[in-house]
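User: Fold this one for me? It's Decapping nuclease.
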Amino acid sequence: MTCSSSISTYVQLDDIVSKCDDSWVTKQVNSEPAPSEVLHYTKKSDGSKCYDDKSGLKVLKIPIGRTKGKERKNRKTKTNIIGADLSIGAGSFLKRENKDVFSLQDVFDAVEHLVETSANKEKEKLRLQRSIISTRRTLLKLMLLPVNTCKSFAFDIISYKGLIILNYDWDDVQDLTQSLQNFSLETQRLQQYSGFAFEDLVTESSAADQASEYYSLFRSEYSNFDLLFSAEIDAATDIKGGPSNYVELKTHSDGCARSPVSISRKFLHSWCQTKLVAGKHVVIGFRSKDYKITSVKAYSTSDLPNSISLSLLRPSPLDTLSCNKIKAKYHHLVSWIYQTALSLSRDGELRQFKLVCNADHNEDHSISLIASETDLFSTKHKPALTPNWLKDYLG
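Assistant: Here's what I get for Decapping nuclease.
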């Protein structure tokens, strides 16, 4: 990543969180901003969006509960699922391109709809002038920084009149290429496809367009700014419920390939992803080497941390991690990003930054916020990062 720039500010992740003992973490957890769902929509296969429409929300076939009736139904449903081949149909599967995976277009469309349908448009516009707009994919990468200390990350940031736009720099995909370098392209494709196949296997949908997807826009209220972000929702236990009924669906290898490190990483990834949207359920389908389901297990976000061996993910004597500490560091980092980008922006003019998180092995990342007067974003970023309607709203 090259650009004509100067380092505007530099800090260690732990410097952002100066006191990180148990009492500090408890205080942060008790005061952390809770995400609330402000709108939802179904995205059809042609890209069109139907707001306040839950037809794209898939319902989990496997009941999550302890009553005898549910347990009998659960056993019967799982019997039909165990042994299913997740590789069937993979031949026609095409991986999504990074420009689509990390696009901000959906969240911008949702924010525009939120403002346009607000009972008080002016108030909603003013809130935008003290907000961060992002996606759950990007926020998840920030949250997992404390355990990804061997990988470097970069994020694109635009600051304009109090609004901060934050997105993962998908051109700088060192973390993706490194994590996949030991796998063949076919294995990569099969692993990605198996996740979609498992989702279809354990859910049912009433949507006429079976390829439709369900999204939510969430807002977390910090002390002096809001965080608006979109998230694609895999499924729900009940279509009538809210975020507490949302379910994160995952697959993972079983048998010898199910190492303590890999399963702890999967559990942590799932826990963070679910906590970001105030969800309570994770369902994992374990698969054999030939991609057949061997077991299906449901986890609650309250119990999942007990199954995560964080010492295996970050074997450093300098810092004893916990799930709550990871979450507390994330909230402080988000606040630091907003305050720092805002302080480096002159008179509310459009400013562009790179947030660079350099790997420091078993220690926390060194974080640099790099500002430049030149355009840091290619044409593939720019249409999504600076929509005209947003400039009009902010004046």
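One thing worth pointing out: The radius of gyration is 21 Å.
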